[in-house]
């Protein structure tokens, strides 16, 4: 299993030890005026020296132990937010009322853009005590949660896709004693999914995977599907290491997410396969970290998945009657489809389109209580007259009446003109050779 937390490692054959995965040219035009103005401002205004000095640093490639607090802040709007334009639908919904389970390393509830009370206590499934999971040593879960639901904050253009959604942190991975990347088993992933369902999540993000199928993990995903919960999973980062099928991403009910770069191209590390549902920004994306108010930059399918989880939260908030299966179908149908046959092995149905996902009404959803536009009945045409002189009289009247009106108007003008001259002949202007006008 590949890790976005640190160096890539593959478990020994037969081992159940799994490492957490670590981590266009298309644009929907149905955006609000305020969103368009915001995008244009960020596009044309020069970056101030202060903002340039505050460019977030990349996450450590060989992190040991707890992630330090970020020391820099994203002053502008990150490319992923400019690409997806989530604020175009915020006048309709910001995801309020939807709980998103983040099955990961925990989420730091004290992080500035997540500190407004929307991070629940959560649950740590790695220990018998089942402690809360609203803190985060390694930082991976906090980074993921920020992409989903970070609130807007003065001094930065970064915010989450669904900034009013509630985060339910489920810790299923912890740092090891020697400081190496967090390790979890398929059992802990399954327990994490079940705990998120039981905790009230309507959307679950799990940025972890294994290339070894596991019955318990499959049953946990099925439990979520029966409970009408949308499960979003990272496709994994092993495209250059044999491109194996990964789980839980490849289970049929799961939305498997790959990564694209700023140019809209599939990231070279992003997993491919028939199971890939969608792609989202996953190279150099911005989010928050624990124990600080700044930002980090991260790459990986782990960080592409939460963009889709945030979009799913917006859809569930705005279309509460849709089932989990319908939410998945909507996200796929409204994506920016690639110029290939879909689903494409590398891009799935295409790049998630937040605006279209929320605002489009699919024909098959009309039976689920969605509004249906119906045509107003036109008035019946007048009955035809087949006999008599009626049609001829109508045509004659249509011709004669305008003529009579014109003649009446002309005679009235002549009458008023004659009275003004006291019925004397009208004067005539003659042009002499000297080009002077003389009245005659």
From TrEMBL:
<keyword id="KW-0720">Serine protease</keyword>
<dbReference type="InterPro" id="IPR023834">
    <property type="entry name" value="T7SS_pept_S8A_mycosin"/>
</dbReference>
<keyword id="KW-1003">Cell membrane</keyword>
<keyword id="KW-0812">Transmembrane</keyword>
<dbReference type="InterPro" id="IPR015500">
    <property type="entry name" value="Peptidase_S8_subtilisin-rel"/>
</dbReference>
<dbReference type="InterPro" id="IPR050131">
    <property type="entry name" value="Peptidase_S8_subtilisin-like"/>
</dbReference>
<keyword id="KW-1133">Transmembrane helix</keyword>
<feature type="active site" description="Charge relay system">
    <location>
        <position position="140"/>
    </location>
</feature>
<feature type="active site" description="Charge relay system">
    <location>
        <position position="104"/>
    </location>
</feature>
<feature type="active site" description="Charge relay system">
    <location>
        <position position="302"/>
    </location>
</feature>
<comment type="similarity">
    <text>Belongs to the peptidase S8 family.</text>
</comment>
<protein>
    <submittedName>
        <fullName>Type VII secretion-associated serine protease mycosin</fullName>
    </submittedName>
</protein>
<keyword id="KW-0472">Membrane</keyword>
<dbReference type="GO" id="GO:0006508">
    <property type="term" value="P:proteolysis"/>
</dbReference>
<keyword id="KW-0378">Hydrolase</keyword>
<feature type="domain" description="Peptidase S8/S53">
    <location>
        <begin position="95"/>
        <end position="350"/>
    </location>
</feature>
<dbReference type="InterPro" id="IPR023828">
    <property type="entry name" value="Peptidase_S8_Ser-AS"/>
</dbReference>
<dbReference type="GO" id="GO:0008233">
    <property type="term" value="F:peptidase activity"/>
</dbReference>
<dbReference type="Pfam" id="PF00082">
    <property type="entry name" value="Peptidase_S8"/>
</dbReference>
<feature type="transmembrane region" description="Helical">
    <location>
        <begin position="392"/>
        <end position="412"/>
    </location>
</feature>
<dbReference type="InterPro" id="IPR022398">
    <property type="entry name" value="Peptidase_S8_His-AS"/>
</dbReference>
<dbReference type="InterPro" id="IPR036852">
    <property type="entry name" value="Peptidase_S8/S53_dom_sf"/>
</dbReference>
<keyword id="KW-0645">Protease</keyword>
<dbReference type="InterPro" id="IPR000209">
    <property type="entry name" value="Peptidase_S8/S53_dom"/>
</dbReference>
């Amino acid at each position: 299993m590949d890790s976005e937390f640190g160096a890539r490692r593959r478990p020994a054959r037969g081992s159940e030890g799994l490492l957490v995965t670590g981590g266009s040219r298309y644009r929907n035009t149905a955006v609000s005026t305020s969103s368009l103005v915001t995008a244009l401002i960020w596009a044309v205004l020069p970056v101030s020296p202060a903002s340039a000095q505050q460019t977030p640093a990349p996450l450590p490639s060989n992190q040991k132990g707890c992630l330090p607090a970020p020391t820099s802040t994203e002053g502008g709007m990150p490319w992923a937010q400019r690409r997806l334009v989530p604020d175009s639908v915020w006048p309709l919904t910001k995801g309020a009322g939807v709980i998103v389970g983040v099955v990961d390393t925990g989420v730091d509830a004290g992080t500035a853009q997540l500190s407004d009370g929307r991070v629940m206590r959560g649950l740590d499934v790695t220990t018998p005590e089942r402690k809360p999971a609203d803190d985060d040593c390694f930082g991976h879960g906090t980074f993921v949660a920020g992409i989903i639901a970070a609130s807007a904050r003065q001094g930065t253009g970064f915010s989450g896709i669904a900034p009013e959604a509630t985060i339910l942190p489920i810790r299923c991975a912890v740092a090891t004693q020697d400081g190496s990347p967090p390790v979890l088993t398929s059992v802990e992933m399954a327990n994490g999914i079940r705990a998120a369902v039981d905790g009230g999540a309507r959307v679950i993000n799990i940025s972890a995977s294994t290339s070894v199928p596991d019955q318990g993990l499959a049953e946990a995903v099925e439990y979520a599907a029966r409970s009408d919960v949308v499960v979003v999973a990272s496709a994994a980062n092993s495209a250059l290491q044999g491109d194996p099928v990964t789980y839980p991403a490849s289970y049929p009910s799961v939305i498997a997410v790959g990564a694209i770069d700023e140019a809209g191209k599939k990231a070279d590390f992003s997993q491919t396969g028939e199971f890939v549902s969608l792609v989202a920004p996953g190279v150099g994306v911005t989010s928050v970290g624990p124990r600080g108010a700044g930002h980090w930059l991260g790459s990986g399918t782990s960080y592409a998945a939460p963009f889709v989880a945030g979009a799913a939260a917006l859809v569930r908030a705005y279309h509460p009657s849709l089932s989990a299966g319908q939410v998945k179908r909507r996200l796929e149908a409204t994506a920016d489809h690639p110029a290939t046959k879909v689903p494409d092995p590398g891009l799935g149905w295409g790049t998630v389109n937040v605006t279209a996902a929320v605002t489009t009404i699919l024909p098959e959803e009309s039976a689920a209580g969605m509004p249906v536009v119906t045509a107003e009945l036109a008035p019946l045409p007048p009955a035809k007259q087949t006999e008599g002189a009626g049609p001829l009289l109508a045509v004659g009247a249509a011709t004669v009446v305008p003529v009579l009106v014109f003649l009446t108007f002309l005679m009235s003008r002549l009458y008023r003109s004659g009275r003004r001259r006291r019925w004397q002949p009208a004067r005539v202007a003659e042009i002499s050779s000297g080009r002077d006008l003389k009245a005659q």
